[in-house]
Amino acid sequence: MKKYYGSIDGLRTIACIGIVMMHAASNSNYSLNGFLYESVIPSFTNFVFLFMAVSAFSMCCGYYEKVLNNEISFSDFYGKRFKKILPFFGILVLLDVIMSPSVGAVYEAFADLTLLFGFLPDAGNISVIGVGWFLGLIFVFYLCFPFFCVLIENRRRAWLAFAVSLFYNYVCTVYFDAGRTNILYCSCFFLGGGLIYLYRGEIAKFSRVIAAVAVAAAVAVYYAAGENTITCLLVSLSLLIYAVRAEGGMLDNRITKFFGSISMEIYLSHMVIFRIIEKIGLNTAAGNGWIQYAVTVVGVLAGASLFSVVMQKAIALFFHKIRPNM
Length: 326
Prior knowledge:
Layout: H1 7-26, H2 35-43, H3 47-68, H4 74-99, H5 103-114, H6 133-151, H7 155-176, H8 183-198, H9 200-203, H10 208-225, H11 229-245, H12 254-261, H13 263-279, H14 290-322
Helix pairs in contact: 1-2, 1-3, 1-11, 1-12, 1-13, 1-14, 3-6, 3-8, 3-11, 4-5, 4-13, 6-8, 7-8, 8-11, 10-11, 13-14
């Protein structure tokens, strides 16, 4: 029987809220300073790496054994990925094109709607749903998932693949000029999530206190040593280890379950909501201090959450209505 890791929803919640906070700050001109605003909040951009590790772990929970045991229909597997992602993302893409129409936007929308734009060498430069580069990268991971399962078929091979991925990350940085929008650059984060899946039984026996201390230590190292692949790995994987160990509490409750279930939708739609809030002036109505920043973050998060829930229900209703005719 599959084990449900409810605390993973807590990580998704932390990641999506953190990214909303980061974008609300980076796209505004608030008169704020200090370590929190100038260093901590901008660093939330690296929660995308946490999303990668969580995605790999979650996919392994659902499909790893089925893939290796040839118990899966790949037609159904890829069909579910398209059905889950494309309708919601497609609506956002069309809204973005309508709001900022151009020939270039049409070309980019075409690439977006295929969900294959992660294979483009400059996927990070697509402006139609600019944050969608992450979805493109995740979809490349989905397409490569059977090979990923083979790479981590046993622990020895998984560690070897992880070591190779770290060197690939280095080579991408110093020679190929490839960054976070490239699957090879990010492969170490996906493989890190896969390794934690392989060791989930041992991790479940860890002391919860020690796991929490490890997270605190990883965060301290990150801010002391600075942003790099190793420090991002330490923070992302220590958080994932803590979530695998923890049950209930701050990471596993009704609130995190709600946000976790729509975390990807919030991530994809929050900048569209921010631009709407910006157009109506809600991002400057209360000045340019901490109160206004908090109002902007809450407004974007609330708007993106509402939009995500309504669109999810509308899409589900649409498929329910057309299913008899398909």
